[in-house]
Design brief:
mainly alpha; flat; 3 helices
Length: 61
């Protein structure tokens, strides 16, 4: 459980860096997401999931 909470904390740090450090970039990225077709977002999300699982598997394996 502590690993899960650490992972959530790291996600919040990365999100905070984007929004706190580069708010203009965050706004542009939000506009790009709205203009991107759903199937492209879905594929990107699935690739991200696979990469994340692979990284965790390599580190924890």
């Amino acid at each position: 459980m502590s690993d899960f909470l650490a992972a959530i904390g790291l996600v919040l740090v990365v999100e905070g860096l984007v929004y706190g450090g580069f708010p203009g970039l965050a706004k542009r990225l939000a506009v790009e997401v709205l203009n991107t077709p759903e199937n492209i977002l879905r594929i990107g999300g699935l690739v991200s999931i696979a990469a994340g699982v692979g990284i965790v598997w390599l580190v924890r394996g």
